[in-house]
Design a protein that fits this description.
The chain is an alpha+beta fold and 761 residues long. The protein has 2 domains: 515 residues, FAD/NAD(P)-binding domain (3-Layer(bba) Sandwich), CATH 3.50.50.60; 201 residues, no CATH class. The strands form 7 sheets. An 8-stranded antiparallel beta barrel has the order 24-25-26-27-28-29-30-31. A hairpin with a 5-residue loop joins strand 12 and strand 13. The chain is globular, with a radius of gyration of 27 Å.
């Protein structure tokens, strides 16, 4: 890499690839900095037994960068081509009404359509119906299920960026890159070793390199500094053992992905290098409503490992109890080698609710489950399905640096986005049932209520002024001429569909505006624009009836209530399990601990049927010496009601409440109520006493740094009784039924613990 360029592009995905291509075509000297590796034909990792062998970014700069960021788990790619290396190839246009909310002036579907057409030309998109191998069984099944559910008018075949030439036949694409035709191997989302995916490195980046762009891989940008009339970009060269480097440019285009681009700018501002960045930096994060689920034991084989990862979709759009829900529900697929691991999700005791209450514990359980199950073939996998939904979440998250530790965090309000997640789950259950199978949820969601997003958006929003976002409508950062953000970070809202097509189209629009300004040429256009033809997006044929699509057969009625508990804690108490001693010492020192939580059970039927009996906990926790007087927010807590206590006459209520202390460190309030007959029929004491440990870290194996007991006091309990509400329906009969079913479970559990053991045999 040279010491200076006209323009530096950071990242090489749907934003960076577009930017590099057009800047090079416009005659600028361009340097591309990509943190990941270059993947030629057949180099993607395939060692199923060793996750460290090329799979994970954290172990040797591998392909997948998985970030557990408190209330959201983020999945990203690292490699030349960015997210295009592992995405599911889908290219759908955001519905027109998306642009009516939060987007800056000048944006509409009509205004963006020419740029969508240009992206479609560059990536040669086409539906699965063009594949010479025909429609895979899973695609045919989804079409049949849509008809069975009365949703045929909302079924579509999305356009895919896949080479549907002769299967496995090598050829050169129109840009001169070598590719092969799709073989239906089902490996799109782990890197296509045939190069049958039209990934960004095979088109946009190929054109960029042919026009003189210099592409450097395994270099991770750490900081951007404004200087004079340009910028200095500092990076770490992983290929040279972590050596530091820097490069200067008049123009810098940040395209590292929503989370990484936002983090880079946050760190540059914190270091005083870009001090004028908007206060809105980090706000407006969206997980794009991503929701993952599975179906097992379908009536007929679906063969999820045949075909591209995603080939079809069903649109859902209606008002559910006053909440507008809009999303697309797509079938998925996976490599046959992981079929056995996914079958393990059917095992009820694979994931224990008491043991798995944090990300790291979940990760350990998955690793244990993978042993002996991954790499081989499982015949049952043919009767399994994968589902991925994407919808219009509230885009109300925040990406931030912890003010004390500097660690990256995502604040995500799970509770306010539950109506969307529940609608996605309900439709998933309908589809699984129509297939003759049974729905299984992503275990991270089922156990911990943590969503997984592979389509992260926001953090550097486009806006009409710095008060509303970080960049102007063209992606140029407010206060910094020549500094741009051109990736998913600037999208002001969820797209409601797979967002890659919109990210690339917005990048085409904005890089055109940037080049016109740089070159002082108001008529500059991408050379390929003359060849691009109008493309009809499959969603334009979707019919949404007056009043919305049909309601799901699966109902979703839940219960919410607010609970307050108060007590005492002692810091550094040993032994940590001497709760009474810690309580007494805390009381003597007036060292208090309390919380107020709103606990939501979004789907009562699923709650009652599962062994985990899990709910979402949100609120505020106060712990003496750990939080400020105002307390610390809990946004992704987990509550488990009456899980097994190891014996027929013993139950536990579990609380796992992650929070950030006033010292900026991660802590976990890890508590349990020991519900059993201690000899005096103390039902009240058992259900109102929470034995609590404060752990430093977000893991139930993290060291205990404080111990205590908190209790429900009678006045707080009386208030709690008034907070019980039924959500998801306004029907008084349905509400009464929900209360009755919840009460039957609650008091039935108490009967099993306190009464049945004393009845005559």
């Amino acid at each position: 890499m040279r010491t200076s360029y006209d323009a530096i592009v950071i990242g090489s995905g749907f934003g960076g690839g577009v930017a590099a291509c057009r800047l090079a075509q416009a005659g600028l000297s361009v340097g591309v900095i990509e943190r990941g590796r270059r993947y030629d034909i057949n180099p993607f990792p395939r060692n199923w037994q060793d996750p460290a062998d090329g799979w994970l970014w954290k172990t040797g700069q591998g392909l997948f960068d998985i970030k557990p960021l408190q209330a959201m788990t983020v999945v990203q790619a690292a490699g030349l081509g960015g997210g295009s290396l592992i995405y599911a190839n889908v290219h759908l246009r955001a519905p027109g009404d998306v642009f009516q909310h939060r987007w800056p002036a000048g944006y509409s579907r009509a205004a963006l359509d020419p740029y969508y057409d240009l992206v479609a030309y560059m990536l040669d998109i086409q539906p699965i119906t063009k594949a010479p191998l025909g429609l895979p069984p899973k695609t045919q099944m989804m079409k049949a299920v849509a008809a069975r559910l009365g949703r045929s008018d909302q079924f579509c075949y999305p356009n895919l960026a896949v080479d549907f030439g002769a299967p496995d036949a090598a050829h050169r694409n129109k840009f001169g890159a070598e590719q092969k035709g799709c073989t239906f191997c089902g490996e799109c989302d782990i890197g296509c070793n045939y190069h049958a995916k039209n990934t960004i490195d095979l088109n946009y980046l190929k054109v960029a390199a042919d026009h003189g762009a210099e592409i450097t891989t395994q270099c991770e940008t750490r900081e951007i500094e404004a200087m004079g009339s340009g910028y200095k970009v500092r990076f770490i060269d992983h290929g040279a053992g972590g050596a530091a480097g820097e490069v200067q440019a008049r123009y810098v285009f940040v395209c590292a992905g929503a989370v990484n681009s936002t983090e880079l700018l946050l760190k540059s501002r914190a270091a005083g290098k870009l001090p004028k960045l908007s206060e809105r930096l980090g706000y407006g994060y969206s997980g794009n409503g991503d929701f993952l689920a599975f179906a097992f034991d379908t009536a007929t084989p679906i063969e999820p490992s045949r075909g591209p990862t995603i080939t079809s979709g069903i649109v859902y759009s209606r008002s559910d109890d006053g909440v507008d829900n809009s999303f697309i529900f797509e079938e998925g697929g996976y490599p046959k080698e992981i079929g056995g691991l996914l079958q393990a999700l059917k095992t009820q005791n694979l994931f224990d609710a008491e043991a798995i209450r944090t990300w790291s514990a979940f990760q350990g359980a998955v690793s244990a489950a993978a042993r002996g199950r991954i790499g081989g073939k499982d015949p049952a996998a043919a009767r399994s399905a994968v589902f991925l939904a994407m919808g219009r979440d509230l885009a109300n998250g925040v990406i931030r640096l912890n003010p004390l530790s500097g660690e990256l965090e995502i604040q995500w309000d799970v509770a306010s986005n539950l109506p969307l997640y529940e609608a996605e789950r309900r439709l998933g259950n309908d589809i699984a049932t129509a297939m003759g199978g049974k729905l299984a949820l992503n275990p991270l969601w089922k156990l911990l209520r943590i969503p997984v997003s592979v389509h992260n958006l926001g953090g550097c929003l486009m806006a009409d002024s710095p008060n509303g976002g970080v960049t102007d409508a063209n992606g140029q950062v407010f206060g910094y001429l020549g500094l741009y953000v051109l990736d998913g970070a600037i999208l002001p809202s969820a797209t409601g569909v797979n967002p890659s097509h919109t990210i690339a189209a917005v990048a085409e629009r904005n890089i055109e505006a940037a080049i016109r300004r740089i070159k002082n040429d108001p008529k500059w256009r991408a050379p390929e624009a003359a060849s691009a033809q109008p493309v009809i997006d499959p969603l334009t044929s979707i019919v949404i009836p007056q009043g919305g699509t049909v309601a799901t057969n699966t109902q979703s009625i839940g219960i919410a209530f607010t609970e307050t508990m108060k007590g005492y804690v002692t810091k550094g108490w040993t032994p940590p399990d001497d709760y009474s001693g810690a309580e007494a010492a805390g009381q003597a020192a007036d060292s208090r601990m309390d919380f107020t939580l709103t606990i939501t059970l979004p789907d009562l039927d699923a709650f009652l049927a599962s062994d985990e009996h899990a709910g979402v906990a949100k609120g505020v926790v106060h712990v003496n010496d750990f939080t400020s007087p105002a307390g610390a927010p809990v946004e992704a807590g987990v509550f488990n009601l009456f899980v097994s206590g190891g014996a027929a006459d013993r139950r536990r209520m579990l609380y796992a409440l992650p929070f950030v202390g006033s010292d900026g460190k991660q802590y976990l309030l890890d508590g349990f109520k020991d519900v059993r007959d201690h000899g005096n029929f103390d039902v009240w004491g058992s259900t109102s006493t929470l034995y609590t440990r404060i752990r430093q870290g977000n893991d139930t194996n993290a060291p205990v740094v404080a111990t205590g007991i908190i209790r429900i006091l009678i006045p707080d309990f009386m208030r709690q009784l008034t907070t019980f509400t039924v959500i998801g329906t306004n029907d008084p009969i349905a509400k009464a039924s929900a209360f009755e079913r919840f009460g039957r479970m609650f008091f039935g559990s108490l009967w099993e613990v306190f009464v049945r053991p004393h009845l005559p045999a």
